[in-house]
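Reopening this ticket.

The earlier resolution said the output was attached, but the attachment link was broken on my side. Pasting everything inline this time so it's all in one place.
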Amino acid sequence: MVYAPSPEKQHLRLTSSPLSFPVIPRKLQQTWLASNANSHVPRAAAVAACLLFSLTVISFLRGPATPSAAAHTQQGWPADLSSSSSSNSCHKRSSSRVRLKADGTAGAEARESTEQPASVWRRPALLLLGDSLTELGQAEDGGWSTKLTSAYVRKADVINRGFSGFNTFATLLALCEITDSLSRQPVLLATVWLGANDAALPDRRDGSAHVPLQQYSSHLRNITQQLQAAGVQQVVLLTPPPVNEAAPDAVKPGEGAPPRLFNTTAQYAAAVREAAAQTAALLLDVWQIFVQQQGWQQQLLASDGLHLSKQGQQQVYSALMQLIEKQLPQARPSELPWHHPNWRVLYQDAEKQFAAEQAAYQQEHGDPACCALT
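Inline output:
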């Protein structure tokens, strides 16, 4: 015979037993006991049913569990960020933002769970302004601009604004557009490498690019001062390289003389040195670096006697990196923080790291880190 206790005894056990839970409403208990007073349900099944109901109620009252950082790494990021707990607005969690220390490293608040290097919200830029000597620096087989881009990967954007055929006059006309496009990105340094076309002889091939020496000097100072006024932290002026008048392709068929002369270009190189001194710009004397190397005509210049060989590209890159190392140590690639957190940090402490980046950017630049992302 199956044991079936009276409703009074069932009520007593459910309300006084260590297995009972106060979250079960008294009325629900009474209703359940009355409906099952004459049933032949085993005692264990009754207790199990109450236990399951209680756990369900407790889970509901506590709300959904928040996924841990480990769960993110296993399940992946939400497919739709707009529906995740992390808002796409850059400004929503202003109260949780933390500051970076003055030296650019993360404060203790931003590094509670990690000791990884600090990262930045918006990476700075290096602007390369010039003519074909700069444009062709982006050559795939080892141009000086290409090498610079590789050296600063994830640290700074290397923005090549070299325009074949440009002189200082054409550059001045384009300068407003160039600086405006960089208005929301800090520019660590800008190289200005002009003069090879300005120095072309007016009565020969490429003569339309000629700019008289005095006007060239004035243009160069104007360009430098406009870059400084636009917020460029440091301007580096490069002298035009020497030309090899005797290069096999320097004179085209039907031409009696080369379009550029060594001695004329030397005067424009001297004007660059003077402009650097007058504007507090740094000087990279490509002219002197080249002429001091034996066999520079064949080793450092291309067959046209004007543009750079692969070795010449390497020489310019090495000289610029040495200048940065000695005179702009704060702009060394090794001194710049990463753009956005290391992937290990990202998975462990993403929101805090991004909040620290945004707070540091806003503190330094005085404007919001960005608008709401979409």
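Reporter confirms the inline version is readable. The chain is about 45% helix and 10% strand. The first strand starts at residue 119 and ends at 120.
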